[in-house]
């Protein structure tokens, strides 16, 4: 295999030695790129704020967008009232806007955990061991800046979670509860009508859960095959031509590890600590070697995941460049935060390493990750359960997790299997237009040996599996 250097882009061109190079040399495509993740980067760290401020900021920021959709859905004459004004309306039908709070008996409680660990008697029931915390007794409460009210009626309690901003159509009953007739979600802001016209295919590859710490021989072989395919080292000329159209690779978290470290309840032996540190260090070195091979050929974005050596609470900051002394020498190596927001060839890409979707699944009856991902798109928020059950930074004046403009590609990493869906959303303005978003659940590579390929030209999406099935 001969590697031909492209002086204009710095990428490599691929071609087999035993074929005519003039016919079988492929140039890797270039792509315009903007990193739009600055809002997820910490300029200063101030943990003295209360977490309630982020809910107030979320409601303030999304109220304007929601009001526009309320008037389009229910008409300009509908009455929008504050909770404090309901008493004056005497049961008249109106719209109220606020933040949903889901009251769940099975929700984990720090008081219950402390009582179990310390043996204290706090008059609280024992903490259940569950992967899902929903029950038939769950109820929804809507809060605005001043008051709260319990909801009942035409609203699916089980499929919703805490932290969603919404508008509720209905009326207050004699018991001080609000009877729900219909619900309006915030959704997203439609992008400017500038059609994307790419003359040829341009591929984005998504992969997550490499889990190099586990040292799985089968997934390691599959990983090398994937790296060789992306680099143009394997396959026939058709495969190499296809690989040359990959413009970017995004590693969506848990590249170092995909499981928590084991914690000893008894005294920790010093040798165990050394072994654990040695395993993590070895995994980081393997990742550096893998990244070096990849960034020599294409731009690579590395997102931290739940179990990677980064801060735990969202937004996770980029993995430090000093961890990758080899790969960091290349300008194509790009450490990015989780969540991640960027633009490629006019396409807006938004994604996470999977924690928000996992949390929605835990606190609702939604069992399908792609459905949870679609719900967060409808709710207009990447991580609605933060900070209630998902750790996040205590933002004060703004909420960076609001989706805002509708993305072209919206992905979540570290899922059990590959799933995708193309969502069509119609605007309801003077001129009706349809906007498409490609939803992608990226499977954990260590379990499935699968990455995902998205064609930015037409938003087609398909998985690629390496090794035996």
Give a structural overview.
By secondary structure, the protein is α/β, with parallel strands linked by helices. It folds into two domains: 33-44 and 193-259 and 272-465, Purple Acid Phosphatase, chain A, domain 2 (4-Layer Sandwich), CATH 3.60.21; 79-185, OB fold (Dihydrolipoamide Acetyltransferase, E2P). It is 24% helix and 25% strand. It contains ten helices and 21 strands. It has a six-stranded mixed beta sheet with strand order 4-15-16-17-19-18. It has a six-stranded mixed beta sheet with strand order 14-13-12-11-20-21. A five-stranded mixed β-barrel has the order 6-7-8-10-9. A hairpin with a 2-residue loop joins β15 (340-344) and β16 (347-352). α8 (355-362) packs across α9. The longest helix has 26 residues, at 270-295. It is globular. Mean pLDDT is 88; it is low at 1-22 and 263-269.
